[in-house]
Amino acid sequence: MQRKPWIWGLVLILMISIVAGCTGKETQNANNQTDGSKGSESTKGSVELNFWYGWTGPEAAALEKIIAKWNAANPDIKVKGLSQSDYQKQLTAITGGNPPDIASNFGQDVVPWGERGAMMPLDDYIKKDGVDLKDYIKAALSTSQANGKTYAIPIAMHTTMLFYNKDVLAKAGFNGPPETISQLKEYITKLSIKENGGRLQQLGLWPGVDAYTFTNAFGGSYYDANAKQITPDNAGVKSAIQLAKGIWDQFGSEELDRFSSGLGQYMSAQNPFFTGKYAMTIDGEWLPTFIKQFAPNLNYGIAPIPYDDNNPSLKNPGNVTTSVFYIPKGVKNPDASWKFLKWITEPEQMGEFTAALGNLPTRTSLLNNAIYADVPGFKEFLAYSQSPNLHSFPATSFANEYMTEFTDQYNAILRGKIGIDEGLKKVKDKIQPLVK
């Protein structure tokens, strides 16, 4: 899965605004096509497409294999891949008039980028080539659409579950994972080990848990579409933050910072869950593939996200995100870009790519495909993906600004720099004016 650095959040917002300003000055020519319905620069002869994607390491290598497959069969359209996970550079290239010919991104960025002119609508191409959008999982496809337009095609769907080290839990007297929030708190306390004068040696679970995931465990919501009101102060959202804050305060920012400074890299054998530094972790469907590669002897299990004791109807909660491919605004050969995008999102290529990464496919026709038979963890995540309590962050034109501000205030709350009510009020005061 592509992992997005939040440090670029505010820069992205500024760059998107620049895109919006630039699009009003475009001329209707082949190099600034907006809807894919008009002619483009001739694709006859040899065309080279620059494909920027956010995956790195082994995941990038898997995508390069798919690209090589295309190049072997299509000598007239050569695709050159580049691992580029800095999304600021995508926007810089688009606003500068020199965009990549095709690129990857995250579903939560599609509406803000598309509505502000950074992504080319694909609907005319989809209609012309008869692409069956009904084959896509509705929740996944919805992240790529807004106001009747399709700005991207989702290649993979992501959600998270609870991973636990069976040996570590057994040593602490637990014969299975926690099922409820109250049990989760108990496990974290008993599984966190302090030595050498109170220094952390092992954490039950990193306390900066994903608030979006646990908001769904408490039945929360971030936006009231009917009232056109953002709701960061919703009771379920506040409960998720209170959960994280309570865990965080058991250890304190200073000790957590010291402990985390000695942890190994995520995509390596030194991943803190692989080495036993974390007894439990909340992670995505790609993690079992990493475990197979970096820690094949790890004795682990996969379980649902714990649910609120007072609301068992919200079992199996979670947050859904997607990885997507799109054609940036202003590409020189949109027809060639579409030809490759259409091909790489067809079932055969989608299956090869997502199986290699351990991701969930976005096409329903692939869900029971034999290509996933040997993908570790796929069965557990496939079953979990059917839960009615999985939700996506609201797809709005101001989603980037909202998530960035919420994340900033959430981190400030955890570190005790601001109170929960005050922090959430700051979010609401800053973002609500953007709704209009």
Automatic annotation (TrEMBL):
This is ABC transporter substrate-binding protein. PROSITE patterns: PROKAR_LIPOPROTEIN (PS51257). The keyword Transcription does not apply. Keywords: Signal, Transport. InterPro entries: SBP. The keyword Thylakoid does not apply. SUPFAM superfamilies: Periplasmic binding protein-like II. One of its GO terms (molecular function) is maltose binding. One of its GO terms (cellular component) is ATP-binding cassette (ABC) transporter complex, substrate-binding subunit-containing. Signal peptide: none annotated. Belongs to the bacterial solute-binding protein 1 family. It comes from Paenibacillus selenitireducens. One of its GO terms (biological process) is maltose transport.
